[in-house]
Design brief:
mainly alpha; elongated
Length: 142
């Protein structure tokens, strides 16, 4: 059994169709076009094969990427700590997060890490941990 539907086409397309209508099976052409469009949509909605494998691999890569950027932040924070003042250490120790001014300073001084880096928060978190690890060691000796 077949179902009937009505389609709407622009006036200029209708005029062009009138000129070739006798040579075409309009119903067949519409069916074929719909078949292709529907199949494409169905394919897009199907779960990709091996999706679980892909997701697991991407999770591992993300974890490795985060760890690598945090490590770079710690290393750079420890280097920068050698030039910080007592007040700067105390200020950083009392804050729970890095201020916008400090973020700007870090971005300016570590441009090679910040350019194109998607999640700079990971680097900044590592940087702060690096600075505070030096401070923890130094304040015990003051």
């Amino acid at each position: 059994m077949a179902e009937r539907i009505t389609i709407t086409i622009p006036n200029d397309l209708h005029e062009r169709l009138q000129a070739v209508k006798d040579a075409l099976n309009v119903s067949r052409v519409c069916q074929e076009g719909l078949e292709v469009a529907i199949r494409i949509e169905e394919l897009k909605r199907e779960k990709s094969p091996n999706m679980d494998t892909l997701i697991e691999r991407l999770r591992i890569e993300k974890e490795q990427d985060v760890a690598e950027w945090k490590e770079k932040g710690v290393i750079e924070g420890k280097k920068d700590a050698l030039n910080l003042s007592y007040r700067e250490f105390k200020d950083l120790e009392s804050k729970e997060s890095i201020t916008d001014d400090l973020t700007y300073w870090i971005e300016e001084n570590h441009f090679e890490y910040m350019e194109g880096f998607v999640d700079k928060d990971v680097f900044l978190e590592g940087w702060l941990e690096g600075v505070l690890s030096v401070w923890d060691e130094a304040k015990e000796l003051l």
